[in-house]
Amino acid sequence: MRRWTIKLSAGLGLLTILLTCCYAEENYCFASRSKTCSECLRAGAGCAYCPDENFNGPRCDLYNNIKAHGCSVATIITAKSSMTIDKHRAIDTKIQKSQVSPQEVTMTFLPGEEKSLDVEVFSPITGPLDLYILMDFSNSMSDDLDNLKRMGKELASLIKTLSNDYTIGFGKFVDKVIEPQTDMRPEKLKKPWPNSDPPFSFQNVIKLTNDLDDFNSKLGKEVISGNLDPPEGGFDAILQAAVCGDQIGWREHSTHLLVFSTESAFHYESDGANVLSGVLPRNDELCHLDANGNYTEATNQDYPSIPTLVRLLGKHNIIPIFAVTSYSYSYYKKLQEYFPIAEVGELTQDSSNILPVIQTAFKSIRSKMSIQAEELPKAFETQFLNSSGQVAEYGLLNIKPGDIGTFKMQLKAQRMIEEEHACEMNPADREGIVRVKPTTFNTPVRVKASILCPTCDCEKTRIPKADRCHGNGDLMCGKCQCNNGWLGNFCNCSASASALDTNQCIGPGMKEPCSGRGDCQACGTCVCYKPEQFGGPYCQYDNTQCKRHSGFLCNDRGSCIMGQCACTEGWEGDACQCLKSNQTCLDSKGVVCGGRGKCVCGRCECHKSEIELTSTCEPNFQYQFGVCEATRSCAQCQAWKTGEKKKKEECDMCPFRVVMVEELKEKEQVLDKCSFLDEEDECTYHYTVEVNKDPSVKELMVEMLEKKDCPVSSLLWLLPLFLFLLLLLALLLLCCWKYCACCTACWQRFLALLPCWKRGRSVGFKEDEYLLRQSQLTSDHLDTPMVRTGPLKGTDVVRWKVTDNVHRGPSHPQALIKPNPKEMIQFPISLRLNRLFSENLFHPESRDAEQLRKEVADNLNEVYKQIPGVQKVQQTSFRMQRNAGKRQDYTIMDTVLPAHRSSYPDIVKVTEKNVQSGNFHDLKVVPGYYTVATDREAAGAVEFQEGVESLDVHVPLFVKDEDDDKKQLLVEAKDVPLGIAEIGKRVVNITIIKEHATSIFSFLQPAYTYSRQDAVANIPISREIIEDGRTQVTYRTQDDTAKDKKDYLTVEGDLSYGLGETQKMVPVPLLELGEKDGLLEDKQIKQFLMVLSNPRQGAKLGRYPRTTVTIMDQPEPSVMMFKKGTQNFTTSDLQYTIPVVRTRNTDSTATVKFHTKKTQQFKRSGVLNFGPGETEKNIVIKPEEYPGPIQPETFQLELFDPSSNASIGERRTTLVNLTEGVPRSPEKSQMQQMGYVSQKATSPGGFPLTPENLKAKATGPRNIRLNWDPAPGNPVGYKVKYWIYGDPEKDAQVLDVKTPHAELTDLYPYCDYEMRVCAYNVLGDGYDTDIVSCQTLEDGPGEPGRLAFNVISPTVTQVSWAEPAETNGNITAYEVIYTPIDDELKPVGAAKKVMIDSPKKRMLLIENLQSAQTYQYKVRAKNSVGWGPFRDATINLASQPTRPLSIPIIPDVPIVDAEAGDEYDSYLMYSNDVLKSPTSSKTPSVSGDDYMTNGKWDQNFLFPGGSLTRNLSASSSPMSTLSSNYRAGGGSMSTETNTTYLTGHSGSYRKDMMGGGVHTTEVIMRKRSENRGYTDENIRDSIVMTDVSSKFPDLGGFGYTGMQSSSQSQFSYSLSQGSRARTQSSDVNEALYSLDRVLQDARFSPGVPETPSRLVFSALGPTALKVSWQEPHCEKDILGYCVLYQLLNGAEMKRIDVTNPAENSVIIHDLLPNHSYLFKVKAQSQEGWGPEREGVITIESAVDPKSPLSPMPGSPFTLSTPSAPGPLVFTALSPDSLQLSWEKPRKPNGDILGYVVTCEQLHGGGDVRSFQVNGDSAETSLTVPNLTENIPYKFKVQARTTQGFGPEREGIITIESQDGGALSQYNNQSLTRRDVFLMPTEVTTQTNVSHTMLNDPYFSDGMMMTTQHTESGGMVTRQITREVVQRSVMGGSTVTKKMFYET
User: Fold this and answer.
1) With contact defined as beta carbons under 8 Å apart, do 318 and 311 qualify?
2) CB 1012, CB 1109: distance < 8 Å
3) Are strands 1392-1396 and 1403-1407 parallel, antiparallel or unpaired?
4) Contact status, residue 581 vs residue 570, Cβ threshold 8 Å
5) Which helix (H) or strand (E) holds 1665?
6) What span, in angstroms and rounded, lies between the C-alpha atoms of 1269 and 1276?
7) What is the 3-state secondary structure (H, E, C) of 1482-1502?
């Protein structure tokens, strides 16, 4: 009992100590639990150790903590670091070279310590310059070299202008002299091109020299060379030029520039585009130039990587300038991003502008300075601050040449590096000399930095068998080191068996040892299972159960230790919620709480006061409408014994005393000067208020003027007379009461005039009700008069409010919709400024208006910023208000304040306070007037000055489109806060009747684009006339990313439209790009808005009340082309109309010329002029203008010579076909020529004529308006036919109308429609018009598809979503918002937004989320109309399965840091430019064009003369999932391909091809000339494999089972050019049918394992799965297995290695419920890895609706796997058609609705055709027409289900004509299947395939067939060996077949 009592006391004591000490942020000293003194000091900076043997606290802690715990100061052991400046020479600007100061510094650091160093740098204006030109010498650069030679003198003069101390050198490069980069034929190695030098890698031609004549002489002798592949080996040359300093001639103190000139892309390390990838060793980064300057190791090592180049160029202070052509500009622009300073210039095709490019780049480089720390040890990190103390990103500083610049370097020694303590690291990683310098400097600041790892002296002297240790141990540094057999802090516990008694680990009130949370060790010591969570002597404290503040554990300002919060330094409280510092409690004088309260928990608790106090207990006069109003009653009662507090007990409670004085101080000397009217004697008193200058005096100083200002005479003697007259008048009125109804009003008015009646005055509205018609409104406000009766002496302020839609009852549907309090809305605010209105303020662009607008914005923003969520004011304007009393000449300011809807009460309160004080910060306003409004309510105040009887209240009317046809507003006078008037008529009702609009104003489109070169953006504003008349609308521009007076000039005003006017143009001046913006590389897109408002005279706003105008620096060219490639006319047509269309940038003017070609009779040319907005023009040819009869012919029209802002599209020419037409009668021709009769309107039988001038215009996203001229005659009506573009006209909908116009409704948004109209009468329909097309307008997008989460870790997730089902336009961006929320779904932290500006990137990786915090994720889409609705989901990552993964760089996925800022651009990077980097590289390399689309990965490899395309499909086909097309012009190639063959069960797969026939297989060698299907000039030979049906006995059903097999292939080609023979064998061809597709795949080496023969899945839970397999066949021992798995939708592939070959199963725990996974298993032997066995599986279970990745506890779970449709069966019907059939999928992912079939040519060309097949029958077929013989086609069939689309089934087929004749006859059907390979010249193929098959027509069930196939050389033969092995298996046997193809 005594033992645990002592332990409990010690534990509680330790807890008390922990809670009384201050811990630094993350107190690593205490947390280190150091066992020795040295370990303590090494724990980090600030750690101290107490060696006092009597000390009972934590020995290792912060110095102040140990001292506070009672450790003797003299004994405390600490360690200190140092910093000394060893060399400091001041900068001398007279020396024209780069300088830094200081030059050498020595710093020592303790782990975790940070030091700073101030550095000065100087860059001369014209310093030494070394310019090295490195030029691509491939043959395509020959004209570039000639131009450079010719520019010798210009180059000399340029270099002299750049520097007066210069050198210039020259180097050349091509590529590695090795295949496939170089043609290795001997004659090509001597001269790859005519008049060229032999190929080479790199040669230093001219060492850096200042002899320009010698330079030009040597340069003139250079001759071009050449190579094969387009990417060049320039990286080899750059590296050698950097590291070979002596050979190149770089000087030490000069600026080093390397000009890299090429027109091609680049090879880089392991770039995968050459056979050297992975073959050659890594570049050794050493110099390998011989005496002639040639690079000698080019063919012995790989190219350098991009990180290597960045590092080496930085190390040698070389700045690259990439001078490249437009072809490769984009590659080098990406490459530039990885260099601290680099420039990219675009060359012309012949490099004639290389000198201006160099000059421009040099100026840009001189304007930059980037600081970097080189050779930084691993344990250190740096950052650089500019002169203002801000972190310089990438070390970029704005220091001009010739100036001395300063910056601060912060160097920090890290404590832990990847979980390794700094003192445990290699010494080279924790100390070294850091070179700090600008990238253009050679001279650095050398900082010798090292981390101290101190050792305590007390550890060198230990006291053996010390008494303190009970003689059982040694005392060292105050701590016992126990001998063997003894335990405890003082070695007083024997490690005997009794010490192992677990009862010693049971504390009071506990039932289990160590509370069930730990292991009981000897002597009752508990070791907790999770020390980071459980603590205490008995593990009784849960460190996750401390108190929380604002939802955060220990307020996120401390650690939970032993159940209590141990706060970080500067915080205290049971939840660390209190600041220790009183800095937040200091008032403006620096006094804590102003001396009127106490500081508690960082906040003031003020004493009770009559005056409202601020948060620091200062008088808050703003709250009480100013100083005067706050002190009025107390000053009046003390000085004059009158007023509200004239009672003595009330007056004595005033917080100040009044001093009577003869003269008051000036207003500038005091806080405020006040004057008030004393109502009891009608006299005015004056006083001042000031704060006492003595801080010890808390009271205000109030000085009262001794004399009041009273009227000259008193009217008290008139009082008796007034009383007499009053009685007399009352008597008379009583007599007349019943006879005069109007006397009541007179009586009330008279009484109001009396001073004794209700204080004598009243205020109220003049009218009871107003009735308005919306169509007649000219303003969105109504000036409502308010009147005052009674004595007009004195001032009255009346507060009023307006409520919208009071006619709606509480059960009205709109009233039930509660607004979102977090919605950001605009608050219109009006104030009366204390300045007279001037005429200039009417003009917004005037200087006075601009200055006042800025003053208003600055002061209002300063006042309103105290309200959370408020943004800056905008749209400030100025006006006057008539009938505003004596101050109607003062300026009224109107502005808009964006804020949350819930901020309305706060905005009103703050506005009211500041108005009454007369000041908005420094802006003077007139008290008594303000208005604050929302979109549904408003509040304000008006002021009646002395003598004012009437004034207007400016009431907002809240007119909205969604208003009811009749709505009411209630305006109410609330109270009179200042003055003595009573409220009379309190309310007025305003009724607004909504009428149909007479006009609709709108912009024509939601966005416009203009170039700065246009100088003016002409924005059309359209008016749609419904009832003609005069009307007006207001327009105004607003800033977005484009700024007024910087990018454009603001315009605003009113447009007046007269009768019949439908459009007006508003010009907006555009400004030239500023010099500063012109230098920016990544310029922001500049946009501004134009907004329509305030439509008048019955008009309203239409579809686009606002438009976005984009200002482009360079205008995007228009594209013009013919609308159709072919035009057909007849010789009888009156005219030929050929349309030309324009796309892109249609807002500007453009021209293009045209002329006819190859015509005998129509010689025509001209110019088409496109105006702004015009997208189509017609070229009209009238035959009547040409002499002679019109003959049939075919001619061309061609477009040429477009204007500078336009280009010509793909249809540059159109073919015009003239055919013979029907002759016309002379009378008819004459009438047609005169225009009385149109050809189409001719009506021989009395039918109506064709309507003319049909026009279509989209009026909305679902509406199109049609207008046409009425048809001649009297038609009964018109029929409008309309259909979606691309659909057949027979499917058109028909609308019957009686008028010559129609409105099409319920259309699809953003959809192309075609329309035509015909008139009809009693006889029937007339002729149709021509087809017109029109596209409906865009609409807002729908919500995105369901959100999916890939949980990487508890703080990292990958969220993805699907495109909205209804895009209603082009999606331009997505926005992701994620917010931490509590259990009630309320936000507990700031929401963060990420904008993803690419619609293709529908995935986001979010890092640094709060652990164990629930987040709400919301995603919405945007198109040109705006944002659509949110799709949201809620998830807590901590509740998801643990997925311990490293964070990959995911291609094409934005990555965002949750700890970053709230701006849109807070994501780290788009990683589509990232491929792979070497292990030692920190900077990623640039990728090529690799894309993953639709589940397929397409890779393009470059070969000499051709390319290779590899398509890997995620689905399987009955033949293959691999389709390969190899094209090359020579050389050799090696690749490795994994292919899966999935065969499916089909009982009648080949019946139609095999019945009674003989099946043979041919291998045919053909020359290219024999192959009509391919025309590629690079293809020299093709191999065609053909299956020909002929006579063969019917062997019954032939099919495949659902088993899988795979093959892995290795290709190395060696196909000779000689003749080729062919042999064939047909005895087993039918059994090999399924193997014909894999003849292109290679065999395995002997001993490589085959595919694991079986894959079994077993569900262990909703997220756990057991995967088993059977050992595959292998001639050698299996060494192990590999299991790969990933989400089927393409997440990261995970790998599990099984090293024990006896194990054939794994268990996986981190799966997601209801997600499909792809699993792959393969085996390994000494010969390598075998092929993979694949399977797709899904664990289905119920999930938590709030967290879609969390399964419901106890819910059942099942396994499922979707399957593809059955094997595809092809039946040829004719040379150009076939029938395709397939079986229903065995396990579809949902109910089958139908199928989607796609057909495309295997090797490209032609369109992809798609077929929709409905139904879910067991077998489905489809007839496919219009095929081409001898062309291979690829078919895909995919089931369309209720859950989406299932896996695809693929098949490849060719219908080949036999011997040029008809098809071979077998039941009139024949099928030929060809597999086509286009290979390089030399081919050798090895293939190994194994298939397991059932229902084989040749063998009984259960038989296994193995085929081995080897093919080499040009001769192909087959040898068949049959080997039967009988097994004792009932009902079956096993047959092994081995087939060899060999020479």
Assistant:
1) no
2) no
3) unpaired
4) yes
5) strand 1665-1669
6) 15
7) CCCCECCCCEEECCEEEEEEE
- CA dist., res. 1800 & res. 1832, Å (int): 9
Tokens of 985: 């008529």
Instruction: Choose among 1409, 1419, 1407, 1484: nearest CA to 1451.
Output: 1484
CA distance 1728 to 1536: 13
Chain-centroid distance of CA 650 in Å reads: 65
Alpha-helical runs (H) found in 1555-1679: none
Number of other residues whose CB lies within 10 A of the CB of residue 1740: 15
Q: For 1145, left (φ over 0), alpha (ψ -120 to 50), or beta?
A: left
Q: Which residue is associated with the tokens 């009862």?
A: 503
Cβ atoms of 898 and 874 closer than 8 Å: yes
Q: Coil, strand or helix: which one is 1017?
A: strand
Distance between CA 435 and CA 442 in Å, rounded?
A: 10
Closest alpha carbon to 363 in 1075, 1112, 1113: 1075
Q: pLDDT tens digit string along 1774-1794?
A: 888 888 888 888 777 678 888
Cβ–Cβ under 8 Å, residues 978 and 795: yes
DSSP 191: -
Q: Which residues does residue 826 pair with via DSSP β-bridges, in sequence order?
A: 898
d(CA 1180, CA 130): 64
Q: Find the range with the poorest average confidence among 498-507, 1725-1734, 1846-1855.
A: 498-507
Please, how many CA atoms are within 13 Å of residue 1842, restricted to the half-sphere of its CB?
3
The DSSP string of 591-608 is -BGGGSEEEETTEEEEPP
How does DSSP assign 485-517, residue by residue? TEESTTS-EE-SGGGG-GGGGPPTT-SSGGGGS
Listed in sequence order, the residues at least 6 apart from 453 whose beta carbon sits closer than 8 Å to its beta carbon are 38, 42, 111, 422, 423
Phi–psi pair at 38, nearest 5 degrees: -65, -40
Residues 6+ apart with CB under 8 A from 1064: 1020, 1021, 1023, 1055, 1057
Helical H segments across 865-966, by residue range: 904-917
Q: Report the C-alpha gap between 101 and 121 in whole angstroms.
A: 7
1219 Cβ neighbours under 8 A, 6+ residues apart:
1128, 1129, 1130, 1131, 1192
pLDDT band with cut points at 50, 70 and 90 for residue 258: very high
**CA–CA separation, 540 vs 511, rounded Å?**
11
Task: State in Å, rounded, how far the first CA of the chain is from the last one.
Answer: 93
Rg (CA), the chain: 45
The whole-angstrom separation of Cα 1345 and Cα 1324 is: 49
For residue 1806, give the amino acid letter. Answer: G
Question: pLDDT for 575-591, tens place per residue?
Answer: 888 888 877 788 776 77
- The token pair at 706 is 């001794």
**Predicted confidence band at 828 (pLDDT cuts at 50, 70, 90)?**
very high
- From CA 1598, how far away is CA 1555, in angstroms rounded? 11
How far apart are alpha carbons 1323 and 1328 in whole angstroms?
Answer: 15
Mean pLDDT of the chain: 75
Rounded Cα gap, residues 1035 and 1019, in angstroms:
11
One-letter amino acid of 829: I
> What are 1297's two structure tokens?
């109308």
The pLDDT tens digits of the residues spanning 1001-1020 come to: 999 888 888 888 788 999 99
Rounded Cα–Cα distance for residues 579 and 557 (Å): 10
Cα 1770 to its chain centre, rounded Å, is 46
DSSP summary character for residue 21? S
Give the containing element (helix H, strand E) for 1563: strand 1557-1567
Contact predicate 1719/1655, CB 8 Å: yes
Kindly list the distances between the CA atom of residue 1853 and the CA atoms of 1205, 1521, 1592, 1837, 1889, in Å, as whole numbers in the listed order. Answer: 48, 14, 22, 14, 21
Write the single-letter amino acid at 906.
D
Position 160, amino acid: K
